[in-house]
Design brief:
single chain; about 250 residues; alpha/beta; Rossmann fold; six-stranded mixed beta sheet; five-stranded parallel beta sheet; 9 helices; about 20% strand
Length: about 250
C-alpha cells in the first residue's frame, strides 16, 4: 500500500526548513504532527510530600529542557528563590543554553557534556564533588543517573517534578494514517489507550530508539521501520528511505 499520510508523534517543527517538509514535498505525502504524550508538572504539594528541600542543594543536574521548565516553574510555585551561587550541570550544550530562559548564563556556574550521555558529564560533576546535587526527573525514569552518582560517591537527591501523560484524541478527531512514527514507549502506550481496538492491518509503524521499538513489539504490533541505523542516523533520513522504497512503482 502506498504511503500517502503519515502521523509523526512529535510537536510541529518550529522551522519551515525541517527535513520533514522536504520529504512531504518530495514524495507528495501529507505529514501531520501530533504528540501522543504530553509532559506536565507535578503539584507543589507532591513535591513537598517527597520531603526534598531545594535550598539544601548547591547544584542541579538537568537531562532535558522539560526538567529545566518544570524545575523553575515549581520553584516559583513553592516560592523558592534560587541563589545566584547555584551551579547547573547539563547533558548537552543546547540544554545548558536553554537555562538562559530563567537565569543569566555564566560559564563559571553552568557545565555541560558533549555527547548527551550522563557518563560524559560525570568528570565535571566529580571535579565539583563537594556540591550537593539535585536531580529533577520524570515519574517514569530509570536508575542510570542514580547508580552513576552513587558509584562516584556524589551527594545527590532525586526529585520527581514532572510526569508524562497520554495526550488523548478528541471525539471525532480523524485517525486515518498510512504510517505512524513513535519516539517513546509512552507514545506507544498512548496509542493503545486511545484506540484499545487498534487493528494495524496495512498501517506501517516506525520508531526511533531501541526501547520504543521494543514497546511496539511488546504491544503485539508489527514494526516496519526502526531507526537510527548506520545508513539513516536520523528519523527523517530513515523515513525518506522507507517511503522511497515503499512507494516505488505503486
Amino acid at each position: 500500500m502506498k504511503i500517502k499520510k503519515v502521523l509523526v508523534s512529535q510537536p510541529k517543527p518550529a522551522s519551515e526548513k525541517s527535513p520533514y517538509y522536504d520529504i512531504a514535498e518530495k514524495y507528495g505525502v501529507k505529514i501531520d504532527f501530533r504528540p501522543f504524550i504530553k509532559v506536565e508538572s507535578v503539584s507543589a504539594k507532591e513535591v513537598r510530600q517527597q520531603k526534598v528541600s531545594i535550598l539544601d542543594h548547591t547544584a542541579v543536574i538537568f537531562t532535558s529542557r522539560h526538567a529545566i521548565d518544570h524545575f523553575f516553574h515549581l520553584c516559583t510555585e513553592l516560592r523558592v528563590t534560587i541563589p545566584e551561587t547555584m551551579k547547573y550541570f547539563c547533558v548537552t550544550e543546547q540544554i545548558a543554553l536553554y537555562i538562559q530562559k530563567y537565569v543569566q548564563y555564566r560559564k563559571r556556574k553552568i557545565f555541560f557534556g558533549a555527547t548527551g550521555k550522563i557518563e560524559d558529564l560525570i568528570p565535571s560533576i566529580v571535579k565539583h564533588k563537594t556540591e550537593k546535587y539535585l536531580v529533577p526527573m520524570s515519574d517514569v525514569h530509570n536508575d542510570d543517573i542514580k547508580n552513576l552518582l552513587d558509584k562516584h560517591n556524589v551527594q545527590h537527591t532525586e526529585v520527581v517534578m514532572y510526569r508524562t501523560v497520554s495526550n488523548d484524541f478528541g471525539e471525532g478527531e480523524e485517525f486515518d494514517y498510512d504510517m505512524l512514527v513513535f519516539f517513546s514507549p509512552a507514545g506507544v502506550s498512548s496509542l493503545k489507550k486511545n484506540f484499545p481496538d487498534f487493528d494495524q492491518k496495512n498501517i506501517k509503524i516506525g520508531t526511533f530508539g531501541s526501547t520504543t521499538a521494543q514497546a511496539v513489539r511488546d504491544a503485539g504490533l508489527r514494526l516496519d521501520l526502526e531507526a537510527p541505523t548506520v545508513q539513516a542516523p536520523s528519523m527523517t533520513a530513515a523515513l525518506d528511505m522507507f517511503i522511497k522504497e515503499n512507494n516505488k512503482g505503486k
